[in-house]
Design brief:
It is a single chain. The protein is α+β, with helices and mostly antiparallel strands. It has 2 domains: about 100 residues, OB fold (Dihydrolipoamide Acetyltransferase, E2P), CATH 2.40.50.140; about 45 residues. About 25% of the residues lie in helices and about 25% in strands. The longest helix has 23 residues.
């Protein structure tokens, strides 16, 4: 069963086995993968034992690669993070060619992101905007629903 990263940070169930699925933000020293699933602006660090994987698999892990990782959640020994996932199994769900995926770990102008509309969702800026938009829309719908209102049907337009 997949766990959302935002819930792992909130609950911090240290010592439990979890599975996260998301996109690689960074991969350092063939050992530390920073994973984002879009549920929070924060990323979860995954610690991989590089002895367990061949070089061809590790070379496929690039920024933007979609992965599924299972393992044990532990208190982090590193600075700037409370928890980390000790990898017991890693599956690459979708490769990402860095030449074709221009969103890297750097700041991108809004003009650049306007040209890459299908990739906006993976940036911190747009991820935060969409999370705020979701919560606002949900609150408005809940407000009216709790007071007995219904969302009217959309108008039907005839084609000429």
């Amino acid at each position: 069963m997949r766990s959302e990263i935002v819930k792992l940070f909130a609950e911090q169930p240290v010592g439990t086995e979890v599975t996260v699925k998301g996109w690689v933000r960074t991969f350092r020293n063939d050992q530390f993968i920073s994973v984002s699933d879009g549920s929070t602006i924060r990323t979860l660090q995954v610690v991989v034992n590089k002895e367990n994987y061949d070089d061809s698999t590790l070379k496929r892990i690039q920024t933007g690669t979609c992965i599924s990782v299972s393992g044990r959640l532990e208190k982090s020994l590193g600075k700037g993070q409370d928890i980390e996932l000790i990898c017991s199994s890693l599956e690459i769900l979708g490769d990402c060619n860095p030449d074709e995926f221009p969103i890297q770990m750097k700041r991108h102008s809004l003009e650049f992101l306007r040209e890459k509309a299908h990739l906006r969702f993976r940036t911190n800026t747009f991820g935060a905007v969409f999370r705020v938009r979701h919560h606002l829309a949900f609150a408005i719908h809940k407000f009216f629903n709790d007071r007995g209102f219904f969302l009217p049907p959309l108008p039907y337009h005839h084609r000429k």
